[in-house]
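Summary: Need help interpreting a holo structure output

Steps to reproduce:
1. Submit the protein chain below together with the SMILES for pyridoxal-5'-phosphate.
2. Request a joint structure prediction with the ligand placed.
3. Inspect the structure token block that comes back.

Expected: a single structure record containing both the chain and the bound molecule.
Actual: see attached output.

Input attached:
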Amino acid sequence: MSRFLNESLSQLVPYTPGEQPRGMDKLIKLNTNENPFPPAPAVRGVLDGTSIDDLRRYNDPSCKGLVEAMAKAYGLRVEETFVANGSDEILALIMMAHCEGGVAFADITYGFYGVLTDLFAIPKEIVPLREDYTINVMDYQHITTPIFIANPNAPTGIPIPLSHIEVLLQQNSNRLVVVDEAYVDFGAESALPLIEQYDNLLVTGTFSKSRSLAGARLGYALGNEQLIADLNRVKYSFHPYNVNTLTQRIGVAALEDVDYFNRCCQQVMATRQTTVERLEKLGCQVLPSCANFIFVNGVKVSGKDYYKKLRDANILVRYFDANRLRDFVRVSIGTAEEMDKFLAVTAEILK
Ligand SMILES: *Cc1c(COP(=O)(O)O)cnc(C)c1O
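--- attached output ---
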């Protein structure tokens, strides 16, 4: 770091993204929860139909067409809908808009929450999960700052029932609850139906996982009109042109193809189920996942060794060298063929 870096940032530990290796030909990449299927076919048409002049001009900062398509797809009003450059940006905007007094989140959850609180010097309260990695909502009763809940949680994949989200919302109507639904389309219950009833609920999501558009960078927030107005206030003070022209059009095309979306999600869930069954037959423990990844304890092998041995066999998964996570590896659900290979290598490792 240079001698010019802000003092407050000298201790910051930035987020470590999963590897994106080049020359991936022989590598099976199950480390960043990307979707194994391509984006909706109509996305191709958007790329083909984009002229070079479309890039010369600034993009629409209001993202009108996309926000309208979002509102239609999710049965909300345009004023209840917000989009940004990935949901990581949404999380940052929420931190800037609503969290100067502090935030609370689980000890085991999406690592970016803690990075953002450190970046913005926001006080944080860490609430431990139960022994079985589930959330006890009663542990949040006393908290008055905004709460961030990933549903399903990362990196465990464990979902939280909608009734528990509702308890959190009711504990204190003056406390914001942010539900990060990055993986909700793979079988968990969305908090969307509660938006009309609770003005302290903000739901976030992303096109990176269930819509196969990680590289397009598109995230969204859904909530009552005032909360969305807050996010626009910060956005127009920070990065008004945050969603580029191509991504705005691609997002609309992806939203319109409901059948394709449903089929991809169904396929990922079916592959997840057979993968879990086969891992359990091999003696592994797998946490109950509603996401497009599973958190696997090889039991006979440490998380680190399991990770390394998979890597030696050209299979990339994610390992977290942290308390309560060391016994596991996180494995994204790929195609059926990729999972066959992963299972065959796992069987070898555990022999
Ligand atoms: C992947 C992920 C995000 C970020 O998604 P982007 O839209 O790609 O920035 C947010 N929250 C969780 C829990 C995630 O896993």
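--- end attachment ---

Reviewer comment: The mean pLDDT is 96. The two ends are 46 Å apart (CA to CA).
Status: needs-info
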